[in-house]
Amino acid sequence: MDTLVIRNPELLAAALRGLSLPQKRMEPKWFYDAQGSALFERITDLPEYYPTRTEIGILTAEVDRLAAHVPEGAELVELGSGASVKTRLLLDHLTGLSAYVPVDISAEFLARTAGRLSATYPDLPIHPVVADFTLPLTLADEGHPRVAFFPGSTIGNLDRDGALALMRSVRRWPGVESFIVGIDLIKDEATLVRAYDDAAGVTAAFNLNLLHRMNREIGADFEPDRFAHLARWNAEDARIEMHLVSREDQTVRIAGRLFRFAAGETIHTENSHKFSRGSFAAMGREAGWNLRDFLTDREEKFGIAVLGRD
């Protein structure tokens, strides 16, 4: 009899818990193994996926305006850094930084990115941190100011309580002066759905990779071809939802436990909340921040909010 090898006990616990709920669900942080991170970088280049190129356009056009919110000698801490593509636009202009701290949950991907950045910016100390940014991040008091950077509207993947908890946690960092946050703005349903259900199927592969990951790391026996990707707009909660839909009645085994899926039943894998300037400012105030500045593109598809402690 084969011995079951559990490579990721934390993922196992999350799967057993999430798939036991009446609405089966998995947290989106489990998308980001090395394969998932690489797929997400492909998503950001898709023609339907406007957030990345729109945010880059704002950063490029308004980098001097953003730089005014970063004190000389500050440490820039990026949450969910990924490939740090957008951050390079800031690093090229913020020559007075004391350090750059990329924080990401994917250790392998983070190590590669940090290595490339060190080669590009040899005079800038780079201190990568492997961590789940949805949990409190402890930073030592280095005696210098800090600026948090959270691009990509990733804050929209959190529920309201989770987003507030994160914003409050960042506000407690020693020396933190401001929090620069990318947010996707509410717009027409068709544009939103296309951004999460592209014609090439890359987002579908990204979503389905979660099943492959559970097979690899916790010995699950999902057959990914028996599930389909679904993206839908929830107008009441102002969010895009991603689901994995069972194509038929089936049973999946994980660590000796059976999970039954009816045809059409889903695993809810991600939310992407959309905001207005007013709704995000209100959430910031609730977490103890004030909206210092708000930058957007000409069509108002995307926004970059600068939150301050004052």
Observed structural traits:
single chain; 310 residues; alpha/beta; Rossmann fold; 2 domains; 7-stranded mixed sheet; 3-stranded antiparallel sheet; globular
In short:
The protein has 310 residues and is of the alpha/beta class. The protein is 34% helix and 24% strand.
Description:
With 310 residues, the protein is α/β, with parallel strands linked by helices. The chain has 2 domains: 9-31 and 190-273, no CATH class; 50-187 and 274-308, Rossmann fold, CATH 3.40.50. The protein has helices at 9-18, 34-43, 50-67, 85-91, 107-120, 160-171, 189-195, 202-218, 277-286, and strands at 75-79, 99-104, 129-130, 146-150, 176-184, 227-234, 239-246, 250-254, 257-261, 266-273, 290-296, 302-308. The protein has a 7-stranded mixed beta sheet, sandwiched between helices. The protein has a 3-stranded antiparallel beta sheet with strand order 6-7-10. A two-stranded antiparallel sheet has the order 8-9. The longest helix is centred in the first third of the chain and has 18 residues, at 50-67. The protein is globular and about 60 Å long. The chain starts with 8 loop residues before the first helix and ends with a strand.
How are the secondary structure elements laid out?
Layout: H1 9-18, H2 34-43, H3 50-67, E1 75-79, H4 85-91, E2 99-104, H5 107-120, E3 129-130, E4 146-150, H6 160-171, E5 176-184, H7 189-195, H8 202-218, E6 227-234, E7 239-246, E8 250-254, E9 257-261, E10 266-273, H9 277-286, E11 290-296, E12 302-308
Parallel strand pairs: 1-2, 1-4, 2-3, 4-5
Antiparallel strand pairs: 5-12, 6-7, 7-10, 8-9, 11-12
